[in-house]
Amino acid sequence: MTDCGCDKARQELEEYLRQEMCTTDREAIKEHLATCEDCSGEAHVNQVITQVVRRSCNEEVAPEELRARVLSSLRGGATA
């Protein structure tokens, strides 16, 4: 399989990381990332950002005081 090139790899990087592409395109990008330090570095940064966002979104419930203030604000009430 031939190298897909940096432009294609960067353009389709998010779909690649989310595994939202066909096997042929996925393999071409995987091969490119294995041989291109710049693109593999960019892929790594994107993976780390995705993991951090996922972790930060896994909070179960906002603290009760914060929830009350937000709800009050949404309802048009004053906050202290």
TrEMBL record:
Residues 6-39 form the Putative zinc-finger domain. Pfam families: zf-HC2. NCBIfam families: antisig_RsrA (TIGR03988). This is Mycothiol system anti-sigma-R factor. The lineage of its organism: Bacteria, Bacillati, Actinomycetota, Actinomycetes, Micrococcales.
